Amino acid sequence: MRHTGLVIKFPRKPHELLKSVTPLDGIFTLAHFGIPDIDTNGSMGGWTIEVDGMVRRPIRVTFDELLRRPKRTVVSVHECAGNPFKPKQAVRGVANVAWSGVDLGEILDEAGIDPAARFIWSYGVDRGEFGKVRSEFYWKDLPIERVAAGGVTLAYEMNGERLTLEHGAPIRLFIPGYYGTNCVKWLRRITVADRRADGPLTTVFYNDSPPRSRTANRPAAPRPVWEIAPESMIVSPAPDTELRAGQPVEIWGWAWASRGVANVDVSFDGGATYDSAGLAPRQNWSWQRFSYNLVPDVEGTVALASRATDSEGVTQPKAGARNSIYKVSVRVPR
Predict the structure, then answer these.
(1) Residue ranges for the chain with pLDDT beneath 70
(2) CATH number for the domain that contains residue 69
């Protein structure tokens, strides 16, 4: 391994995410088992991805063969799900990235999926110990319906440049609308199966407790940390900015959700009351810009907040969740 153990880099704060597409040096990195020692400076033509399991024809696809296939690009939010030991803590590790590569659905169509198949398993070459649990692979899954919905990519470029090693070179799986933990780096194998993967990254970690029910006869199953929940953050003004009473200021930021954001509300009193903000339509799987023109009419310290609601009516919670409301404290001099 080039780097062993947990590797984390969150280089950008919300007020620094000024661009619609995040520059490469502003994209977070998380590797549970470290970064493998792969020579990405040499030819990667021999790198092979196996496709097996419940398919009519198991196949192998080399890196060079992927490069010869039609290149697809999807622009999408890329967000860290946070610490699996603290699932109610918001970490705000997020970016918006242009991913280019080959559509996974095209590869699976060639292999021929068994009608009884229900899940896609993906394996990276990284392995090791996380949370005192050892795994022989970084091993994740996703429902086969998500592949059919489109956009799931065997990515070899970010923002028009080849993947770097820390981001999963030479090939990384990217799933628009899913948290980054599902987007396996250093991808080597795809398996089609009729059940969920049973590795520790799907059975021990990254499952949320189900909602409590007084009527259910048995406890509901844990919910996989798959789809990105509705979230928003104020980019401008930045924390501790000094505003002037009576002088207009634009409050703006980004909002996103797996199913798209339907509306964003902005608060000027720490979340006690909200007003509706303007919201740009979603393009591809990107985050959406929201804005509100405010004329401050109070003095002292003011807590700004934003609250996103997705297309199915699910709203960002006040606290106690990975997507809880983000607040920005600004000052209006007396």
Answers:
(1) 1-3, 42-43, 211-220
(2) 3.90.420.10
The per-residue pLDDT for 3 is: 62
The residues near 183 (Cβ < 8 Å, ≥ 6 apart) are 78, 168, 172, 173, 174, 175
Q: Does 200 lie in the same domain as 64?
A: yes
> What angle (nearest 5°) sits at the alpha carbon of residue 77, between those of residues 205 and 236?
115
User: Could you tell me the CATH number of the domain that includes residue 311?
Assistant: 2.60.40.650
> What pLDDT does 187 receive?
98
Distance of CA 224 to the CA centre of its chain: 14
- Helix ranges restricted to H, 35-131: 63-68, 104-111
How many whole angstroms separate alpha carbon 5 and alpha carbon 35? 8
Domain of 251? 231-332
The secondary structure element, H or E, covering residue 249 is strand 249-256
Q: Measured between alpha carbons, how far is residue 246 from residues 63, 68, 278 in Å?
A: 59, 59, 21
Handedness of CA 189, 27, 312, 319 (dihedral sign): positive
Rounded to whole angstroms, the Cα distance separating 213 from 221 reads 12
How many C-alpha atoms does 315 have within 13 Å on its Cβ side?
A: 10
- If we measure between CA atoms, which residue out of 183, 213, 208, 188 comes closest to residue 31? 183
- List, for residues 207-256, the tens digit of each pLDDT value: 998 766 555 566 667 899 999 999 999 999 999 999 999 899 999 999 99
* Same domain membership, residue 93 and residue 149: yes
pLDDT of residue 159: 98
Q: What pLDDT is recorded for position 2?
A: 63
Q: What spatial distance separates the first Cα and last Cα of the chain, rounded to whole Å?
A: 57
Q: 33-42 pLDDT, tens per residue?
A: 999 988 877 6
> What CA–CA distance (Å, rounded) separates 325 from 230?
10
Q: End of a domain among 164, 193, 224? A: 224
pLDDT for 215 equals: 56
